[in-house]
Amino acid sequence: MCTISGGYDGLFNKEDITDAVKAHWSVVPKNVEAFKDIVNGPEPKKHITGHCKKPYLCEFRKYCESQETEYPVGLLPCGQNGLYVAIAYMS
């Protein structure tokens, strides 16, 4: 038994969730196959824009920046708002 001083009593509850897990167990194999397809498939063709920051900063941003063009317009001030991106793709 683990004993921690500092008043952690009541922080965790012991609850049997077996039935709740079993209710979703049938979709696990299908989801695993779908995830394998995603991992083994090509990288998405998505440019760096606002979605890379919201709802949180993407941990792959540096990698994506390295894959962008020599002069990525998304790095310009306000470039991720779409104005420069739209002009660049229209050019």
Describe the structure.
- The chain has 91 residues and is mainly α.
- It has one domain (18-90).
- 38% of the residues lie in helices and 0% in strands.
- The chain contains four helices and no strands.
- It has helices at 18-24, 28-40, 61-67, 83-90.
- It is flat, with a radius of gyration of 22 Å.
Task: Draw up the topology in text.
Elements: H1 18-24, H2 28-40, H3 61-67, H4 83-90
Please supply descriptive tags for the structure shown above.
flat
Number of domains: 1
Number of strands: 0
Mean pLDDT: 77
Could you give the distance between the termini? 67 Å
| Radius of gyration, taken over Cα atoms and rounded to an integer in Å | 22 Å
General form: flat
Secondary-structure-derived class: mainly alpha
User: Poorly predicted ranges (pLDDT <50, ≥5 residues)?
Assistant: none
Taking the sheet with the most strands, its summary is: none
Work out the helicity level. 25-40%
The number of helices is 4
Strand content: under 5%
What sequence of helices (H) and strands (E) makes up the elements? HHHH
